[in-house]
């Protein structure tokens, strides 16, 4: 006796199950093999094309409720652990951003950038270890914000052309490697899957409130911006030919305001230490004592950024099915995301001199207040501006052919070439800063007792010390990732209840990351105030830009600052200095890192159904993966260290050179899935599988690269290791699912991951290139011998520049407005060799994590009301130890999360309110000063959409994002160790959509 369902392929089984589960107007869009491009669309095509079995009807998913029903059936009928989201209708995805859709799935959390979802963390595993596919093809990724990373930025993809998202949480042999948390497959429309004419056009107006709360010098564009999208799909020649074209263009103006300790926290120190930043006895309330750890801020910065974005997406697809057994698909996908940024800021830097402070209790003390004494009121009140732009383009050309050899054998070939490229889109580079300052800052303090850090400054006098340009930084970044991939998949039905799947693939990934810096380290003053007319600077009050953050109403806030037009002041500085090229980015790259990964893989997977008292479906498989790594890096050769201002020691570089290193690895990855039909409406699932996640590109890249700016204590740098092995994870999944209604279910899942070969980030002290530093050298010692305190850098600089001017390495400039000497002091052959903290990587870490997922979906009869909710709890013993000093390994991105979605739908109205919550999580183990934790505080956001159908063709839609105007906050070892707090604003959209 055999299990009857075994006479069909699993894909056909899923289609049939969906058809049975829905009313005639609805059907499931089935889960595909993520490694086989266009499989799910092909399955849908088989149900609707002339080659379809007799009696199968064309079925279409429409509406909010139908979308939830289809997602439920995707989960129910899939092999292994699969979740997904299905479009409400052709060209109409539930969310305007794919990452924000993904966060509705249990276990998926998102990182937000410029007010919208960008990257995803799945089950506590961060973006670098989640693989993203487009129609089953591995996609390249590029980002100037994270140049060497692998995390895919979903902000580059518009949702209008997407028909389905599939999230594969469990491992199986046929799934491509790279996704430890999950493999995410983005499916786009295929014309033969929907015979006949399908067409929509939509227009939308977007108002982002955050764009209004900005200074005039950074505001960008109009209050309301347009979006337009369209989809055309049609079939010809009795269903043998099909063409689909989707396109969208979106503009958005936005802004955000940040208060930040942007260079991190100095320390940590023990209360009984005598070191930089130690709090003098008798000057602190509740002074840290003994082993209590504490840190002091490097600086405090308030910045306001105005942003314009233009996003263009398009896909063109041709399909040809010359016979019932053969279908070919040719498609081209394009996206472009252009972002322009303007910023103004005000900041104060601390010199770690005499101070007063108050503290929380231990064992880790956080500052409530911290004030440094500057009795001469001659330090800088720094104000800066930025004006830069970037452009990211994604292109993918692919060909797929699926051949049904006979009733038992099916073969598929898929090839594609895809690129992702990010580069500057401005003559001023991909990032920049132009610094100005008034040298009139006296005693400077910060109140950290509330969410908003309150800066207070004594003695400020902009009339006595007008603004002048100080230092500047112009950066150019470039990232390009290219993938050429060929895949062959096959399936062979065996016996009555079994199927053998097999395949092989070749993947060639080339990643390039290049970068240059044009930096003028004249932070003590590059020119004089008289070079800049007062009309260039515009007085502003600060408080209004942070009015939504607790503590911003503190009357002690230093509330006056000046903004300016970046290019106007840049031109004035270039003219005044006579060095115009220093105020533009370089046309060559200082660093150029190139990594090539050539992988070959093959898999076998055997699926079978067991005719037992409780029907069981099993899948056992094995995948073999072999990868060769070649890494080439352009390494800048450091030549000298110069002392140019208080704590600024820029490193000079000579002619760079390339170095090449190699590595390789191979893995055998077994997998096993089983699901048991406990009864017709209940399922139990079990899965075991092994997966790998490849290291980040910065971890692989060989060559030692020093950062351009050192400090008194030395410098920093980084070096990769192309011999790194990928992270390997052994995964166990268990689940119980109860489908108690046509569109209602409850599921409870448990997962465990045992991870090894994590690349631990550590810092070692090195003395690269034998660089000499003036600190502790002959001139320095002479100044100390003459009475300067070793921590009084101003005294030491004045002594050296006034007494040794003209000696080797010493060049004195004019005195600044406060009477202190300016100039350059270069390390000499007999001076001490500088120490550098070099960050590198090795396979030295292991981790275990476990979690629970609870899903509930309930539709209230025929009332039109429904609710979907889920909660995920993730836990690991590898949490960051805040009481420990030095480099640590901890899992970043791991957090609990929850979603609650309520819907109402009838023939005229559709309403959806969605609340997403993510608990506090560790986002990094390094801040701007060294090995210190970064914790993103718990965040919840409410979104709302309301739609009205004027007719069967025309509908209106209102959407509101972040309706409760939430703020984002990140802190260090304690909540008082603020790293940054950000205020943005809600976003509102009004749209009209016409379906032909």
Summarize the structure in words.
Belongs to the TonB-dependent receptor family. It is found in: Cell outer membrane. Its main location: membrane. With about 1000 residues, the chain is mainly beta. It folds into 2 domains: about 5-375 and about 385-420 and about 430-770 and about 835-995, Maltoporin, Chain A; about 780-825, no CATH class. Helix content is about 10%, strand content about 50%. The chain has 8 helices and 50 strands. The strands form 7 sheets. It has a 29-stranded mixed sheet that branches. Strands 1-6-7-4-5 form a 5-stranded mixed sheet. A 5-stranded mixed sheet has the order 12-16-17-21-22, with no helix packed on it. A hairpin with a 3-residue loop joins strand 42 and strand 43. Helix 7 packs across helix 8 (about 795-805). The longest helix has 15 residues, at about 65-75. The two termini are about 50 Å apart. Residues about 1-30 and about 40-60 have low confidence and may be disordered.
